[in-house]
TrEMBL record:
InterPro entries: Galactose-bd-like_sf. It comes from the Eukaryota. SUPFAM superfamilies: Galactose-binding domain-like (SSF49785). This is Fucolectin tachylectin-4 pentraxin-1 domain-containing protein.
Length: 141
């Protein structure tokens, strides 16, 4: 993504709690998340690409109970960050995802969150099926 082409979301420098949320229409059993970073050539230096370092990704069920609490451990800047959900959490239906920036770089007053694309991969929540996951399973489903 490229901020100048308006293909990325970007929090303001004055935002003291920079974050981004997505809510699913129906709960989903998610097994992987992908976050696309800003392209390196979109920055005057590498600093804007470092803003995703050590991001926090949290997923929640429909009662707002935490399912996954992940913090990026990498020290290197990546173009695509992959968060793989541990197997024992993959059947828990996710209703909301919260992403938070934690790194303040150079002259930033607060951390800035820039995401150029977000993808979530998964299946229908247990007990549902169909392209839109809106069909209820019978006992043999």
């Amino acid at each position: 993504g490229n901020v100048s082409d308006n293909t990325c979301t970007h929090t303001a420098n004055q935002d003291s709690s920079p974050s981004w949320n997505v809510m699913f229409d129906r709960p989903q059993a998610v097994y992987r998340f992908l976050l696309y970073n800003r392209f390196f050539n979109d920055c005057l230096d590498l600093s804007c690409s470092q803003r995703l370092n050590h991001f926090i990704l949290q997923s929640f069920d429909s009662n707002n109970n935490a399912i996954l609490n992940y913090q990026d451990p990498t020290e290197t800047v990546l173009l695509v960050y992959t968060v793989t959900v541990p197997g024992h959490l993959r059947d828990l239906p996710v209703s909301r995802v919260h992403i938070k920036a934690t790194v303040k770089v150079n002259s930033d007053t607060y951390p800035i969150l820039a995401i150029c694309e977000f993808e979530a991969y998964g299946e229908c929540a247990p007990g549902t099926w169909g392209l839109e996951c809106n069909n209820q399973c019978n006992s043999s489903c």
